[in-house]
Amino acid sequence: MNGLNVPLGRKAPQVLVQAAHIEIGALLNDLQGIDSVLLASTDGFELTSVHKKPVFEAGKFAAVSSSILALVKAFLTEINLVGCQSITLDAENGKALIVSIPAADHPMVMVVITDSTVLLGNLLHRIKVSSQKIAQLERQYSA
User: Fold this and answer.
1) Within a 13 Å sphere around the CA of 40, how many CA atoms are in the beta-carbon half?
2) Which terminus of the chain has a smaller tally of CB atoms within 10 A, N or C?
3) Phi, psi of 111 (to 5 degrees)
4) 101-115: pLDDT as tens digits
5) Could you give the dihedral angle defined by the CA atoms of residues 11, 138, 30 and 68, in that order, rounded to the nearest 10 degrees?
6) pTM of the model
7) Whole-angstrom Cα distance, residue 4 to residue 22?
8) Residues 48, 24: contact at Cβ < 8 Å?
């Protein structure tokens, strides 16, 4: 393990993590109602996070989020749906979105926690933009 809680063999380049941190910070600040954004490896390790309100223990949250995404992907395979891109959980007091960021060398999971005032359409659009930017960063810095 290293300071980013990522196994050394799977460690994302520091420059990628820093650039992704800037992008998730922009996501947090660009859209009213977002409380926290976490970026994790698909094997359940936190890469970076930003928050207005600390609502979780990042290490545990990263592990649980990647497990949920893996379970949903397995479920979708069973019902012949391909390419799980996101999961939206809607609760009385907010939303949680788990988003897959596919990448050749360092696939990631983004988790966005919001309050109940966020507009889902705006949120989905802004998350898609951030996900695409992070995937592009991964290609750029992993080459």
Assistant:
1) 26
2) C
3) -120, 125
4) 988 889 999 999 999
5) -60
6) 0.86
7) 16
8) yes
